[in-house]
Structures are given as structure tokens and as C-alpha cells.
Amino acid sequence: MVRTQIQLTKAQTVSLKKVAQQRNISMAEAIRQSVDLFLKNGVISPEERRRRAIAISGKFHSKHTDLSTHHDKYLAEDYAK
């Protein structure tokens, strides 16, 4: 491993310590896992995000024909389950 020094904000440090404690891992391991996740997923540009959204448009179907006008009602029903 390569030793690296970084600076975090106070809020980042507090949150990172909580995550590390919850997972029973060191802060260093939490940072390594975060870096791995970031490198795996990369940064998606707004153009790529838009392209992906357009690509899935229309691929899913619902039994509701009035979903665009009553989406709040259906969402509330699903959350109540």
C-alpha cells in the first residue's frame, strides 16, 4: 500500500467515523472502499446521464393508464404498504 495524506472537512470526518464504526472497520478502510466505489462507478457526465434516461424511456409499463395525472396518489399508496 502507498501511504497518502488527505485533508477532510470536519463534517466529512464525523460522518466517516460513524460509517467506520457502524461497519466495524477503520477510517482508512472506509476511505479505500469509497475510492474503489468511486473508481468503479466513475463520474457520469450530464450528457451521459441524459442519454441513459432517454434510453430507458418507454421500456417500463404500468397497469395505470392515468399515471401521469395521478402519480402522487399511486406513490402514496405504494409508500403506505
Describe the structure.
This protein is mostly helical and 81 residues long. It has one domain: Arc Repressor Mutant. Helices cover 67% and strands 0% of the residues. The protein is built from 4 helices and no strands. The mean pLDDT is 90.
Mind sketching the topology for me?
Layout (H helix, E strand, L loop, with lengths): L9 H14 L3 H15 L4 H11 L10 H14 L1
Helix pairs in contact: 1-2
- Gyration radius, in Å: 21 Å
Helix/strand-derived class? mainly alpha
| Inertia-based shape | elongated
Unreliable runs, pLDDT <50, ≥5 residues? none
Named CATH architecture: Orthogonal Bundle
Would you tell me the overall average pLDDT?
90
Tell me the β content: under 5%
- Largest beta-sheet characterization: none
Count of runs of 4 or more consecutive helical residues: 4
CATH topology: Arc Repressor Mutant
- Total individual domains: 1
Task: Name some characteristics of this structure.
mainly alpha; 81 residues
Write a compact overview of the structure shown.
It is elongated and about 55 Å long. 67% of the residues lie in helices and 0% in strands. The protein is mainly alpha-helical.
